[in-house]
Fold:
Amino acid sequence: MNASPHVALFATCITDTMKPSVPIATVKLLERLGCRVSYPERQTCCGQIMTNTGYWDEAVPTVRNYVRSFEDYDYIVAPSGSCVGSVREQHPMLARHAGDAGLERDATAAASRTYELSEFLVDVLGVTDVGAYFPHRVTYHPPCHSVRIAKVGDRPLRLLREVRGIDLIDLPKAEECCGFGGTFSVKNPDVSIAMASDKARHVRTTGAEYLVAGDHACLMNIGGVLHRGRSGVKTIHLAEILAATEEDAR
Amino acid sequence: MNRRTPEPGSWLGIPEFPRAAKASLQDAEQRKNLTHATTTIRAKRVVRASEVPEWEELRTAAAQIKDRVARHLEQYLLQAEEAMTAAGVTVHWARDAADANRIVADIAKAKGVDEVVKIKSMVTQEIDLNEYLEAEGIAAWETDLAELIVQLGHDLPSHILVPAIHRNRSEVREIFKEEMGRYGRPAPEPISDEPSELAEAARLHLREKFLRSKMAVSGGNFIVADTGTLVIVESEGNGRMCLTLPETLVSVVGIEKVLPTLEDLEVFLKLLPRSSTGERMNPYTSMWTGVTPGDGPQDLHVVLLDNGRTNVLADPDGRAALRCIRCSACLNICPVYERVGGHAYGSPYPGPIGAILGPQLRGMGDANTRALPFASTLCGACNDVCPVRIPFTDILVHLRHKAVEHKTAKHPTGEQLLMKGAGWVMKDGRNLASVQLGTRFAGRVLRGKSLGPMPIPLASRWLQARDVEAPPTQTFRQWWKDEHEGGAK
Ligand code: SF4
Structure:
């Protein structure tokens, strides 16, 4: 680990716009752990909404923008397994689609410097106890893309287990998709709702106060159903729990 | 019209996936049956896979063997033809379904038979052989228990391995009671819905047909190129009956089923039963190399079928779909399949493999087929279980791209405009910042209220079941600016 790694935050368009508390928590957490954090303002999005809907030409400029935004940084950290998965798996593919070998090389290089938050904490900083305090009953949903595309494994759980005061409860059928799937939720609304409702039901059986995940999109989806059902279960991003301290609790 | 076999359901009336799925979701009984069945088999697969220490290496080997076959398909097919011919098999080549159906019917007519027994086979479902034979006056009897249930139920298959997975045993009892007598030996009276009694009824009903039929039709799991050996794996023994009793055996096999050597087969015989039924070994493995005088069928035919497979092979980003060994692990793990069942996919190949194979075999010509690559959340669960490591999520996204190219080729679509808009916004942080002015304004208007059901196009599809938080008045971008005003970047 470097003495004080210089990290570029990839805030991701969805949390930047809709849930700023997530990137804010990420900044606080990284700074508390001794990192210097920058936010290259040129950044936008990983492009997967376009890529996964089949609009590749429209997604290519996003790849170019990502590469340029982060070219000066050794560590690019994002609080989203899904966006990181897209950067790693889809950016080089889109560059190939554009027939741009230079972009493919740059995109591959940028992807290799891109980390999902829990990966960066565990693998680069080498910590699992980040000094967090969160005295609540919590259950964890592992977002599909973080597990199967970005392959973060059990790192989020290892981090959560070290949080002081936390009461971590297993989620039944945790590994099953919540049904969001980007534009899937609009193209196949009925299947999406059936899946989200099953997931919300499993969350409720745990009796948790909070549902935590490392991807805001899943939380929006499951949380939306929980809220509609007046279940009282709140959603919270992994970064927000890890950033929380005893001072915050007071 | 005077039919000899039960009239099946039709794929033609099934609407586009989202609408078909909606209808299936409302069938509570079917959803219960499916959840129960897929949950059970998933759990078995996990245990069986974890027993094999070199499981991941076996998957890699299987993928490599299949890819090698695909690279040299012509060579292996010619080798297989030569070996089979030398062993006394008549080899036929079929470009498409019509070719294959005609070849099978001609053999039956030449033999003077008016009925055939059938081993469960996906490829004959694909070409709709039974209906072709029926029209030619030849009755095709399914002998696999689940296929029998589907056939007698005037139904359509909804799963690769367990085509009647959407039925429970009391429905099966009704079907047997009602229908068996119309097409052969009736079910014993009285009959309960105990699996052993139902199996006994099927056994008695089928035995009559096994003993009477002079010709059988099968598919094939593998063809070993260097020996010309055909391989069929099955669980019930009905296949063994079909493969040994009748005089004539016709096997219709997709051209991608060829393997170079018997050693390669070993890899697949380890992977297939554990992935599909969750068994260590499948109960019946039949292998035959040509005609053995005085033993088994004396007239063997193999129909090698293309039917779109060479089109799949021609696409480097989609061809991995041809590795499929039809184990159905991807269906069983799929959360969409679990809730919707197989019929909504509109073809005998449902679930993730159907979503990537159907559009490639049939082309993107019709809207129903174009909807299939979108019938997935891209959760990737199928990637992890597939014994031949098909990269489903990559292929799905690739096919979505092709579907979009097809849809937007002639005139622009509303979705395309939206995506072009998104593309512009995400091209540069300044564009995103200007759009965020709008979301911040909306946030000020809504003041933290959450959004409930609302009749806004597209958004209503989300809001019908989910509340959405109002956008915040401050974005992260703005927060950062405020915090670092004048400071370092
Ligand atoms: S695609 Fe893979 S998992 Fe699905 S049926 Fe074929 S071999 Fe099995």
In short: Chain A is about 50% helix and 10% strand. Chain A has a mean pLDDT of 96.
